[in-house]
């Protein structure tokens, strides 16, 4: 369960924390639901959950779980430690003059509708961001990047007019709140206005697929074709919208949910200490100021 929570849900955790501007928000979790096939339940006072699974929709205007359960970037980069976890890529390298970034994409990956994933999807995504600047939330095309080309079924080259190696972070991952998610070309190439598309039947490469939606709850179930053998270790993730932070806190204390993004005064004493084997609290790894 720790693997799933930190690798796949953490970007969502931080995004939710950042939404509370100026408030330091401990992320509270009950770690009991780690059994294989179990359901991991998250609750927060989201209000009406939007029927929108567009990963490039403005923050807060898409359904929770869109960016963490369904879609993936090339890498996940831990903002606190800098550790890199390969996702849709397996490696990358810079040319000797630092003008060409070559990314090797993962083989054997399929989109959740059964279509094969390839480097062409990666090149399409970045060129799509260029053609639709509103989607380029990480400012990738404001850098010296000039072209992105799929040079083989598993190779993508990013060419720059002058060296800008730090831009690799935005390309490979993005940020915790705005990952640079890869889109399926066979779906999005026909979407003429991607900034407003609600994408209500999302097709991704992530560990889960959306199985049901309502204005108060979204359910994601394990992706049976996910490329990481044996992962995810849980069967489903449920995001429930509750009426208040107080309700979420009570559900945490009662053990009826597993995680929330909530503020609890002196969390170590009032929550963690009640069941230290299961209850944990995390602070955001990036500033919320």
Number of helices: 7
Q: Structural class given helices, strands, pairing?
A: alpha+beta
Strand order of the largest sheet: 2-11-10-9
Instruction: Write down the Rg.
Output: 19 Å
- Main β-sheet, in a few words? 4 strands, mixed
Proportion of residues in helical segments:
10-25%
Principal-axis shape: globular
Strand content: 15-25%
Q: Which residues sit in consecutive blocks of at least 5 with pLDDT less than 50?
A: 1-25
Overall pLDDT, averaged? Answer: 87
- Cα distance spanning the termini: 30 Å
Descriptive report:
Strands 2-11-10-9 form a 4-stranded mixed β-sheet. The protein contains 7 helices and 13 strands. With 289 residues, the protein is an alpha+beta fold. The longest helix has 17 residues, at 2-18. The two termini are 30 Å apart. A hairpin with a 2-residue loop joins strand 9 and strand 10. The protein has helices at residues 2-18, 66-70, 119-131, 167-172, 185-188, 245-254, 267-270; strands at 27-30, 39-44, 75-77, 84-86, 89-94, 100-105, 145-152, 155-160, 208-214, 217-222, 236-241, 259-261, 279-282. It is globular, with a radius of gyration of 19 Å.
